[in-house]
Amino acid sequence: MPRIVSERMTAQIDGDFVVFRIGIRINAFWKVHEWLPVFLAMPRMLRELDADPESGLLGYQTHFGVRNHMLTQYWRSFEHLRQYARDSDGEHLPAWKRFNREVGSSGDVGIWHETFLVRDGEYEAVYNNMPPFGLGDVAELVPASGRFETAAGRLGRTQGDDLPVDEDGTPPTDY
Question: Model-level pTM?
């Protein structure tokens, strides 16, 4: 079991980065021959990326559901992501072409992705009683105190002195 960090922490990463979410939706469970090859393509891509520290992939987390499965990836840059997606010698491009040829717009299997370009300092995160997770799993975890006490402080908009206060004027103890 992952180690639980039992204090409020925030994630810090140097420079810009990319959050890339990609997923599959199984629309026709009984058409295993349609969705299973799509489902199995991603682990091959992840093994390939894990084996290449220069790929630009910082890390990822998988999220499995009944019908929907999602992968959140963190990349050093959009150019790294784009280069991998278009690499004719890699796992992705052939899988993408195969999907378009064999599944296309049949409606049996859905695929999607979202790309977020994050500028240096234009993000904030907080974790409490959590193992390293999300951005905190690929970035440096530091205590969420002082300037990093509040979301606005972590975004550099305050000095972290903007805690909400209870009726008696004191910050909530569970914030």
Answer: 0.88
